Amino acid sequence: MIYAIRTLVGQEKNVARIIARNVKDSGIGVSAVLVPESLRGYILVESSTKLDLQNPAFKVPHMKGAIEGDIPYEEIKSFLKPEPIIASIQKGSIVELISGPFKGEKAKVVRIDESREDVVLELIEAAVPIPVTVKGDQIRLIQKEAD
Amino acid sequence: MVTKACTRCHRLLEEDRCAICNLATSKNWSGFLIIVDPDESPIAQELQITLPGEYALRVR
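Predict the joint structure of the above. Result:
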């Protein structure tokens, strides 16, 4: 069974590490802790028994409680094999840069290099269109196709 | 110290080479998974993980 635990955003890995360390010694049926990149503020705990949040192993800083009920295994399969973002964008897509010097800027995709996972972008708000090459994980898709 | 992931087994470590696969590790990884008990875990079986430890979900 898989349960979702709410954490502070940004503390997911720390909470997962502490839970994994605590359950190792206490003999609770937790077999894996998953921190999907796309699910901010949540971690998924795989357990053979129902989670007992009263257990001292789950008294972890930055943890904000658990979601009632378990999650079907099929639903978390997409988190286990994350598809590269580059597969979902195409030429002409509008993306937002999420890191680097142009963070927060919107840009249009000019070219995609799938083997190197590079994307060539043109900043929308720039007066002169200058091509910028960034890695596929530095962008967030806003609009799949430009009109 | 930078955490790196083995490009084959996806195990997270701090060395430049994976101790198990003896392959180069990569700094470019995402997703985080801790396997406590690989024999009891369907997630570990799905990803063919046999050793407990910390893993990345995607390594480039």
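Chain B touches chain A through 21 residues (CB under 8 Å).
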